[in-house]
């Protein structure tokens, strides 16, 4: 099998999430961009999926229609301990769901920046911001390996099941460290491996990679990458209960035997 380049992997992921962005969410829809209930699939009822990820009814009802696409593997803004006035960056912001929730927490004196590499997602998020009347959010087109932000301009970085999709995670964490202010923090939800992925999963650089499976790293690998980037106070907490929804991402593949959602935290000294 020909090994894909990093750019080819990004193009595959971008193409998949373009499909998600332009999908019309219908209550009875059954079509998907990949597999049922996966991290890259618009669920017929996104609120059902998000409730499983830890979002409250109040949070689900607080965002504009079309912002919650039922993506992700956790609730990063809930673990970020956001404070009024902080500047927050969301890596892979999608339709803006987590950004809008974060915007409520940081208030009018704070600011939330969402970065996404898919133009259709950025357009969708900007439309949702207008619908919701959000004046403290900004959605930018860019790759999380090359962030369109200046050095030391962000207090908190959040992300929801996106970093696993990057073929260059070392560069992602290096960029995260660069844009964080000293004393800033990283608070993300992402997928980690619990054991070695079998070859048929690990080598699938298209369907299963875009489904947040093949690109997952181990806790040890992520810890090392964070340390090499300069982060301290690193904490990675696997969430075994996430297997209840991960098992449905790729029906019949038993991916819950190999991956789990985790809460990943770290600080920039």
Automatic annotation (TrEMBL):
S-adenosyl-L-methionine in keyword set: yes
CDD domains with a match to the protein in the record: AdoMet_MTases
A Pfam family: Methyltransf_31
Domain Methyltransferase: 83-229
InterPro entries: Arsenite_MeTrfase-like, Methyltranfer_dom, SAM-dependent_MTases_sf
Keywords assigned: Methyltransferase, S-adenosyl-L-methionine, Transferase
PROSITE patterns associated with the record: PROKAR_LIPOPROTEIN
Class in the EC hierarchy, top level: transferase
Gene Ontology BP term (one): methylation
Record EC number: 2.1.1.137
Catalyses which reaction(s): arsenic triglutathione + 2 [thioredoxin]-dithiol + 2 S-adenosyl-L-methionine + H2O = dimethylarsinous acid + 2 [thioredoxin]-disulfide + 3 glutathione + 2 S-adenosyl-L-homocysteine + 2 H(+); arsenic triglutathione + [thioredoxin]-dithiol + S-adenosyl-L-methionine + 2 H2O = methylarsonous acid + [thioredoxin]-disulfide + 3 glutathione + S-adenosyl-L-homocysteine + H(+); arsenic triglutathione + 3 [thioredoxin]-dithiol + 3 S-adenosyl-L-methionine = trimethylarsine + 3 [thioredoxin]-disulfide + 3 glutathione + 3 S-adenosyl-L-homocysteine + 3 H(+)
GO molecular function: arsenite methyltransferase activity
Family of the protein in this entry: Belongs to the methyltransferase superfamily. Arsenite methyltransferase family.
Name the UniProt record assigns to this protein: Arsenite methyltransferase
Species per Swiss-Prot/TrEMBL record: Paenibacillus anaericanus
